Amino acid sequence: MRDSNERSDASAPLTTYVEIARRAQREWPLWGPNSGGGETVYLVDGRVYWVAYGDAAQTPSGAEEIVCVATPPEFVARYGAYDKVATVVADLKALVV
User: Fold this and answer.
1) What distance in Å separates the CA atoms of residue 22 and residue 76, rounded to the nearest whole number?
2) How far apart are CA 4 and CA 25, in angstroms?
3) What average pLDDT does the segment 55-82 reach?
4) What's the pTM value of the predicted model, to 2 decimals?
5) Contacts of 4 (CB under 8 A, 6+ apart)
6) For 74-95, what is each residue's pLDDT tens digit?
């Protein structure tokens, strides 16, 4: 019998913050957590997830929102010039090389 937390399709992107945070191999807090929210980037099974919550999320209630799902090279190409994620980009470049 399959555990209720086990995913049936391991190749599909994760869809909940809880799943992402639980399975993260690396994480980079960008800001927060605080009463206004926060943002964190996670590396899980070869995918990069950018998660925002609170004031940083676009959801009406400020619930966790997955802003981006990408492979490390895609993330670097898309966000490489953003100062906000400079440490994430440098670490991902080091992992891929």
Assistant:
1) 23
2) 21
3) 86
4) 0.79
5) none
6) 999 999 999 999 999 999 999 8
